[in-house]
Amino acid sequence: MRIVVDVTPLTLPRTGIGNYILGMLRGLAEAGPEHEIVAFSAVAPPGKRRIDAALDGISVDRRLVVVPPKSHWWRTGWSRLGKGRVEWLAGRLEVFHFSDWMYPPQREGVRATTIHDLFPLRFPDWVHPQTYRMHSRKYEHAAQTCDVIVVNSEFTAGEVVDLLGVPRDRITVAYPGISPSLGPAGPKHDLGAPYVLTVATLDRRKNLETLLDAMPLVRHAHRDLLLAVAGAPGWQGPSLNRDGVVGLGYVDDEDLAALYRGAEAFVYPSRFEGFGMPIVEAMACGTPAVASSHASLDEASGDAAVRADPDSPEAIADAVEEALSKRDELTGRGLEHAARFTPHAQGEAVLRAYTAAKGSR
User: Fold this and answer.
1) How far apart are alpha carbons 96 and 8 in whole angstroms?
2) How many CB atoms lie within 10 A of CB 222?
């Protein structure tokens, strides 16, 4: 099969969605070497350079078409007007897997997309209005047109059934594959004092306010312990201007791995996720993890994370204390759990879905 995957989100600094796309491409290339995997986008020149850099070392073909400046407007118009088949730029295909950023029509073949979460529909007041408009249009379009909807967890599969009315047999769970750069061996960051780490865009749903309130309780027994916050600014995010808090901003993959390894524990208090990749990333680096008890994080956590009520600073503080005291035990369980989440397994799941959909057309 010639499988064309829209990689436009790789024009931005990578977070969960970009890393999911890279894991899927790696996995498709590993699990299906007999297929032609094409990374496709229609972008301005700066975006093309960023995509090329992100794809370095991944064995896929590239069809990165340069369009005029304001490429977002160009892609939006292409999607909404529904004129001009994607084959016009991408060439012939048996599968087209589109992203959140555009959904042009196609002449033939399997039509697929990924839904990472339905947070904008569950909590529209917690996202920027533009984000709500963009994603809600994509969700509606995907429900109406896609042969295959790939999701990152059984939790998100249930959301797609409940909120979009998509039959379960059109949905495929492909758990995210962890980057090869994330593992227990390698350099560790030194912030000058021991630290617990959280990794999240600084927006409301990540619930960093409750973690910030929990840290003074933790520091009663661990006075030198810092909270390191890695993540870019987001929508309605908190101020990090508190004692013992180190804001690191956006951190690239290489530095992020060293931050995970150097942390005494990792904390992820999010109120809602599609999966919760940072939990597994921390475990893969040998760091004990504390995770919100919300059901959306169950699959990422397995039985290897300490869980805590995301609304309670006291519960989060107690969970951090447990993670610190059981570090060796949790590290072993976490490494075993994280080993399940490979790009190869992710690619295999997606390929099975493509093949089944092609056979039923």
Assistant:
1) 13
2) 16
Residue 286 has pLDDT above 70, yes or no: yes
Count CB-CB contacts under 10 A for residue 231. 22
Give the tokens for residue 294.
């919300």
Q: How far apart are the C-alpha atoms of 106 and 103, rounded to whole Å? A: 9
Edge-to-edge strand list for the sheet holding 36-43: 61-66, 36-43, 2-6, 95-98, 110-115, 148-151, 171-173
Decide: 305 and 319 in contact? Cβ < 8 Å: no
When mean pLDDT is compared across 78-92, 163-177, 274-288, the lowest value belongs to 78-92
For the stretch 136-157, pLDDT in tens is: 888 998 999 999 999 999 999 9
Read off the tokens for 130: 């533009």
CA distance 290 to 322: 9
Distance CA 28, CA 179 (A): 14
Domains and CATH numbers, the chain: 2-177+342-359 (3.40.50.2000), 195-338 (3.40.50.2000)
Cβ distance 302 to 284 under 8 Å?
no
Judge whether residue 265 has pLDDT over 90: yes
- More reliable by pLDDT, 126 or 116: 116
Strand partners, 227: 196, 245
The torsion angle over the Cα atoms of residues 258, 261, 263 and 269, rounded to 10 degrees, is 90
Residues 6+ away with beta carbon under 8 Å from 58: 22, 25, 26, 29, 39
- Rounded distance, CA 182 to CA 177, Å? 11
pTM of the predicted structure, to 2 decimals = 0.93
